[in-house]
Design goal:
single chain; 110 residues; alpha/beta; two-stranded antiparallel sheet; 5 strands
Length: 110
């Protein structure tokens, strides 16, 4: 079956559905989280491969010099170690969570 978009045709047999990398329950049901108190840091969590196309370096540069931010990273260990020099240069102390499966990743958020 082909769908028409003006003069273009799309062969639906060539379309592959790629599911979200986020578990559906996170989209529909927000997990509970502790209340943030005055003075507590803003927690930023990066989960994924630390490769150029994922933007980990851009995140570190964006957080450089930001006060009151805590960075937690769930990534393959070699990727985290490769990012460590940039983290040091940026003055960011990141907490390495390991390379976690999704249920454990939710635990790492808290």
């Amino acid at each position: 079956m082909a769908a028409s978009h003006g003069s273009r045709q799309t062969d639906r047999a060539k379309i592959e559905h790629i599911p979200w990398g986020i578990p559906d329950q996170l989209i529909t049901t927000r997990p509970s989280r502790p209340a943030r108190t005055n003075g507590s840091p803003l927690r930023v969590i990066y989960a994924g491969r630390l490769t150029p196309e994922k933007g980990g370096h851009a995140l570190v540069r964006a957080l450089a010099g930001a006060a009151g931010v805590e960075l937690r990273i769930a990534a393959p260990r070699p990727h985290f170690h490769a990012l460590a020099p940039l983290l040091r240069t940026a003055g960011i102390q990141a907490r390495y969570l390991g390379w976690l499966r999704r249920p454990r990743l939710l635990e790492g958020i808290h």
